[in-house]
Amino acid sequence: MKKNIKKGKITVIVTMIVVCFALTLVMSMQFKIVNQTDITSIENMREAELRTELANWKSKYEETDQKCEETIKKIEEYNTTSQSNEETGKLVDEELEQVNLSLGKTDVQGQGIEVTLRETDNEEIARINGDDLLVIVNALKLAGAEAISINDERIINMSDIADINETFVKINGKRILAPYVIKAIGNSSHLETALIGNGGHVDEMKKIGQNVSIDKLNRVKILKYNEDIKLKYVQ
User: Shortest CA distance to 152 belongs to which of 226, 67, 95?
Assistant: First the structure.
């Protein structure tokens, strides 16, 4: 029995020795691994990772900065284009306004004269006809009239003034009856002189007894030409 006890103790001691040896071996291996691992290498690895990360952020920043600059350039281009379009639009509007004025498609006002022609009861005195109106209109144009109307019918380059059967006058295709009121915008003195000066048609009409009067006005309003301007042959 004593032998068995001794044998058991020996076994326990041997087992403990083996365990202690194994622990010592594992610890020595861990210390060896730690000693073989260079701390500087770890720091270098971290520094490399940081550099890589920094390089990535720098690349992202440069890309974002480039996009920002491109956006700013586009905004400047848009502003320049917008200003250019506004200036172009303004010029187009001004040109369109001048064209409409030339075509008589705009109401206008300014200094000028008003010529009123009335029929008389005297049958010996010739009636006022389309030729009289046409001669007066042409004289006013030569004197620099910028706009003319007869009984609020705007006279344009294509207007027709025709005497119908020695009874009434047609202007712009519409029947016009006396009294005839001719309005003209321009230098009032020049316009008046063109009609009553030596050889002026109004002066001649007065000499044969026709009732014609001229008023110089600071403000004459002439309405626009309301019909569509149609061209048959111009392409």
Answer: 226
d(CA 79, CA 6): 104
pTM of the model: 0.63
Tell me the per-residue pLDDT of 97-136, one tens digit each, with 9 for 90 and over: 777 777 888 999 999 999 999 999 898 899 999 999 999 9
Q: Tell the burial category of 206 from Cβ atoms under 10 Å away from its Cβ (0-12, 13-18, 19+).
A: middle
Span 184-232, pLDDT tens digits: 999 999 999 999 988 899 999 999 999 999 999 999 999 999 988 777 6
Q: 107-222: which CATH architecture? A: 2-Layer Sandwich (3.30)
Q: Where would I find the H helices in 37-127?
A: 39-103
Whole-angstrom Cα distance, residue 60 to residue 152? 74
Q: Where are the domains of the chain?
A: 2-37, 107-222
